[in-house]
Amino acid sequence: VMGELYESLPHLGYAVTALPAPSTRAECDVYEAMFNRYSPPALSSQPVGLDTLSNLLYYSYGVTRTPVAEGSEERSFRIVPSGGALYPLEIYFYAQAVDGLEPGLYHYDPLKHSVAKLADQSVREDILGSFLQRDIIEVAPVVMLISGVFQRATFKYGARGYRFVLIEAGHVMQNANLAACAEGLVARNLGGYFDRSLDEALDLDGVNHS
What we know:
About 35% of the residues lie in helices and about 15% in strands. It is an alpha+beta fold. Strands 1-6-5-4-7 form a five-stranded antiparallel beta sheet. Strands 2-3 form a two-stranded antiparallel ribbon.
C-alpha cells in the first residue's frame, strides 16, 4: 500500500535536475535565524542560485538518514518530525528567478535531492492567480507549495492522520523560513488562496492529494 501511495504521483517520468549537495556552513546559527526571521511587507526579485535553492529545499524536508544496506527494513528519515515517519507531504515550487533552472513548476524529490520540471511558465498565471495576495509573490524568485497525500497518514492513524499532516506542514514551513533567513533571504507565508484552483494548477485531485 505504501509503495503505491508514493509511486502514484503525477511528477514521475519528467526531466530531472540534480541539485548541488546542501551546504553545512554555520555562518548563521539557529538562534540567530529564529530571532531575525520576520514576515516582510514585500519580497525581493533578486534571483537565487541553485545552491541556495538546494539548501532551502533540503533544510525544509531533506533526508538526514538512510538505510545502511540495500533491503534493510530501516526507513529513511528526514529533517522534520513526522507521525510514524510516514512523510505524507510533497514539495512543489514555481521558479521565477532561479539561476540554472528555467521558469516553471517543479517538484522536489527528497530521496534523490533532485527536482523534476512538471510544466513551463505557461502555468504561472494559474499558480499566482490562485493567491489572494498575488502582489506579494509576483516578484518572488521561488514560490514554495506544500501538498498532503492524506492516505499516507490516515491508513495508520485514521482521522487523526489529517491533524498530523497539518502539523508536519507547519514544521516544514518553519524550517523553510529559518533556512531562508540563514541564506540572507526573507520569506512570507501565505494561507489565502483558492484551494481548487491551486489543486488544478498542480494537477492534484483535491481530495486524496491537496
